[in-house]
Amino acid sequence: RSIFGFIRNAEVKNLTLTNSTITAYNNAGGIVGYNYPGTIENCHVTSTVTIQGGQSNSTNSGGIVGKSEKYSSPYPAVRGCTSAATVSSQQFVGGIAASLNNGSIENCLMLATTVTGISKVGAIVGEKKSGTLTDNFHTCRDMGGVGDDNATSTDIDGQATFAYEYPAANAAIGAAVSTYATGTDYEGITV
């Protein structure tokens, strides 16, 4: 399971997870499995972490949190987190959160290249029922930030955006220059 399998009315801050494999049937997250409601802030999951659904019909695998939801105030929040984990499950798979139902994901960055599943797969969030996404970025060239029913996903300006560095001034026009090294600044998020 996750570092915290379930949080309710709690704050989880300033953690970094490395060198781990997390396997769960439902609600697998690098930091929190099920956030109902709580705040996850300034938490990081490195590229040496694998988060996976444990069975053929597994759901809700996310780089930071599996499921983040609450049906009335106060709502859950995920803020200023980064994930470079490899994340996989059958459905509801996200680089930051597998599923968001109310609450918010803000100023988060997904640096992974492998987020896989059969349905509702997104670089930031696999399934967004409701809630807000604000200033989130990802470096996954092969998918967008927010998943939908048919395993494809799209970027939505201001919510989940592909992050890249622009070519140097002397680079050829149209050249793709992408670096994701430590110290790179993505719209105010420095890794």
Itemize the secondary structure elements and their pairings.
Layout: E1 4-7, E2 10-13, E3 16-17, E4 20-24, E5 26-29, E6 32-35, E7 38-41, E8 44-45, E9 49-53, E10 59-62, E11 65-69, E12 77-79, E13 82-83, E14 86-88, E15 91-94, E16 97-106, E17 109-110, E18 115-116, E19 119-122, E20 125-134, E21 136-138, E22 146-147, E23 153-154, E24 160-162, E25 185-186, E26 189-190
Parallel strand pairs: 1-6, 2-7, 3-8, 4-9, 5-10, 6-11, 7-12, 8-13, 9-14, 10-15, 11-16, 12-16, 13-17, 14-18, 15-19, 16-20, 17-21, 21-24
Antiparallel strand pairs: 22-23, 25-26
Please tell me what the overall shape is: globular
Compute the separation of the termini in Å: 26 Å
Report the strand count.
26
Q: How many helices?
A: 0
Instruction: Return the string of H and E elements.
Output: EEEEEEEEEEEEEEEEEEEEEEEEEE
Q: Structural class given helices, strands, pairing?
A: mainly beta
- Round the Cα radius of gyration to an integer and report it: 15 Å
Q: How confident is the prediction overall: mean pLDDT? A: 81
Portion in helices: under 10%
How would a crystallographer describe the biggest sheet? Answer: 8 strands, parallel
Low-pLDDT runs: 164-183
Strand percentage: over 45%
